[in-house]
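Hey, resending since the last one bounced:
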Amino acid sequence: MRQKSKLRKGIVASTKGSKFIKEKAKTLLQMMEEDAMGWKDLPKIAMMFYDNPTEAIGVLRKGSTLFRQTPIESYVLCSIIYEEIERRSKDKKKLKIDPDYAALNRVISDRLRDLCPHIGIDYNKVMPAKSDKDYGTKRTKFQTMDRQPIINQCIERYRRLAVRQRRKFLTWYNENRNQ
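The structure tokens again:
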């Protein structure tokens, strides 16, 4: 029994084995941190890849969510939706008859013809609304895109800009309202 326990310990357990063991073993993360270039070296790294600082800053802005700039099309899209919701919410007679008159999905569906250019979609390829079929609008063979995913895309853009970043959107909206 005693012999087996000594064999399991091996050279590490012997008195001469201590010279093979480092006193403070470093983790892989610690070794990588020592070798890596830090924030202090960022200008040197940028100078290796870019000719001038504006190119480096431009790349940082494109890649970072902190510096990402919202396209102007999103602002225009949100302003159209925002104005329509404001206008419809003031019309109390229609709201009393139809409570969904000022709902976001309905507003976007009704104004989709105006919103499609701002998201890069040809409105002629979008299927008509089901309510339009009641009025005699027929689907053509070129209308291949479903309507609801496009509406969802507009809703998501509106939510990201006009709801999440309300102050930023309203500042832009107030500055550019009359243009």
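The chain has two domains: 37-69, 72-176.

Sorry for the duplicate.
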